[in-house]
User: Which sequence fits this backbone?
């Protein structure tokens, strides 16, 4: 999902910066680079939580996203975060336009942050390549008996989202190979997307998506994550499975329990503006804990 700076600036900003606890058990790293899309940026609409240290404001990168928590917890001296809302694998190599209103500009190619001395890389990418985030917006309906996503994406027995996932696999593979080429000695961790949508029929009308479409979205998320796991195995990088530990924390759950927000652009964790169907602070902290656990195991 691409975030306009006008939307970021318009939202009230309330938030408490949380950091993961220090871990002394992890091996030492000198240079950490984080790559990816809005789920790697942990994109936020709370203007006070948006950082422009490494990327334009239009990337909506959260000042305490999971990669920053990892860098702080492991006391990594050199850290660069290229993650940007709306990013696709092609944006590893080219400028990504962001900010059409107040802050027009571009996020420079994400691979520009990698060097031969980079020794730790995390990457979360692929959701925008397949169009899953954009598909969610087309699922909204006033009638739970109507399933616009199924009608749009499954035509004559062919699931076009499944086709998109298959088509994106070589691009994600190429992204990992590009990391290896630029930072051959780096430890590379590929994350997946945790369970923001569960195959439980949903919670209409709180989230106005039909039970059929909710289950379809949940199945496509599992399919996307399975593709990312295959790429990790094939390319020999480490796979950080955030989906596995996230059951029961989908967007239909109560505040304080859910780790991702639904369609209402507000979160109580912490109170303030939220990006629909993206991690709230609890989800961000969960991502950070999972990566730190992988690094310190």
Assistant:
């Amino acid at each position: 999902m691409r975030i306009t700076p006008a939307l970021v600036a318009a939202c009230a900003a309330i938030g408490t910066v949380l950091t993961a606890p220090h871990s002394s058990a992890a091996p030492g790293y000198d240079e950490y680079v984080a790559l990816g899309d809005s789920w790697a940026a942990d994109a936020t609409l709370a203007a006070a939580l948006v950082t422009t240290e490494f990327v334009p404001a239009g990337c909506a990168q959260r000042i305490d996203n999971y990669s920053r928590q990892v860098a702080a917890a492991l006391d990594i001296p050199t850290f660069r975060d290229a993650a940007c809302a709306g990013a696709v694998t092609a944006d590893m190599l080219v400028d990504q336009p962001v900010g059409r209103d107040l802050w027009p500009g571009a996020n420079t190619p994400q691979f520009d942050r990698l060097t031969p001395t980079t020794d730790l890389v995390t990457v979360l990418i692929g959701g925008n390549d397949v169009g899953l985030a954009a598909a969610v917006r087309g699922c909204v309906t006033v009638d739970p008996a109507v399933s616009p996503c199924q009608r749009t994406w499954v035509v004559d027995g062919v699931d076009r989202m499944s086709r998109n996932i298959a088509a994106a696999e070589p691009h994600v593979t190429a992204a990992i190979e590009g990391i290896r080429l630029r930072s051959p000695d780096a430890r590379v961790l590929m994350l997946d997307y945790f369970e923001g949508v569960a195959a439980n029929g949903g919670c209409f009308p709180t989230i106005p998506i039909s039970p059929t479409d909710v289950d379809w979205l949940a199945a496509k998320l599992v399919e996307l994550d399975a593709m990312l796991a295959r790429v990790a195995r094939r390319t020999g990088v480490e796979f950080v499975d955030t989906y596995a530990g996230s059951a029961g924390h989908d967007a239909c759950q109560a505040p304080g329990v859910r780790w991702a927000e639904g369609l209402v652009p507000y979160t109580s964790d912490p109170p303030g503006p939220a990006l629909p169907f993206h991690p709230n602070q609890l989800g961000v902290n969960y991502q950070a804990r999972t990566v730190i656990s992988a690094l310190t195991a």
